Here is the input.
Amino acid sequence: MNLAEILVFTDIKQLHQIAGYYRCECNLNSKNDLITTLLVNLRHRQTIWTELERLTEVEKHFLLLLFLDKRSLFTLEDLLAKAGIALDCSEEKTEEKARKYVALALTRGWLFPAKGKTVGQFQVPRDIREPYLAAWLEQQELRRKHEAPAVYRDEGGALCDDIYQFLRFLAKEPVPLTSDGGMYKRYQAQLLRFLSVEEKPVAGERWRFGYGLHFDLYPDRFSLLYDFCFYQRWIEEGNMQVELTERGREMLTQPYSDKTYHELIRFWLRLYKRAIPNLPMLVQLIPLMTGSEWIAHRAIQASLLKWLKPFYYDDPASILSNRLLKMMVHLGLLKAGQADEGEWYYSTTYACQTWLKEYNGFTETTILLK
Here is the structure.
């Protein structure tokens, strides 16, 4: 629902609280006057700008978690979970503090109790999401390029193509596994030469963990590809070997479809979300920041690094570069290019712009393969 519709059904007590917060001058005894005044104030550009400028980083974080989520209704548990994620990045997380941020959102007119059959749930007015997000973007110092770098990489659906390559590779014969559970290096090297993006076998570093079944044994892109095939039951491990299943053979007879591509992106988000709780928010923000132009890596880092926490061996800068930006390029969601001065730039792809309009990663559960 839009703000005008929601205000009509809002309790007079909340209308008074919102009017008091924004210091609105109106007849507090007239609900009609209250609604008219709040309708103008809450959507006014200067009100939104002023509000954003005085918010703490935790409050901005909570706002983005709330406004980027495409759901029309939220339970109190949903809202407390968002407040918990925001608090977890900078303050000690407690339920009391989380409830305080939900209460402030009600006072600021970001949230309203839902009426009718949805009692006990909350809603965000549709027509205040976009103005707040646009204002937040304007307040970032984004270094953009209007023209594309001379050379850039757009991997498109290459990762899906390589799924078929991998399944065909296993269709010839099962591949033996080491005692660690990974394919022998000679088989890896042979397979990786056939794939669209060159990667080299990793040296078996024990610090590589948290992003998949055999992340310690396979390079980043192939690790995701392998895990997706394993999760879909196209391959199976057993008797010290990995082999194609009947489902995998059936998959090889099917033509490429957008459904497989979309499921692959969903799988990545669900698999990495455990290590990066803010991933659904960041995957939405990065395309908004680039728009239809190219944005510098340092600008993305300046805006988003504060919302990434270290994950064991991975520091926030490494997570942003290797787990988000690089993987979004591999998934065909971003294009990457290097400018003459050596700075890396990113831009969204058509697939990203169309897919993210419909997809809502906030509702996804995490996947834990081991």
Q: What stands out?
A: Residues 158-172 form the longest helix (15 residues). The mean pLDDT is 92. DSSP finds 17 helices and eleven strands in the chain.
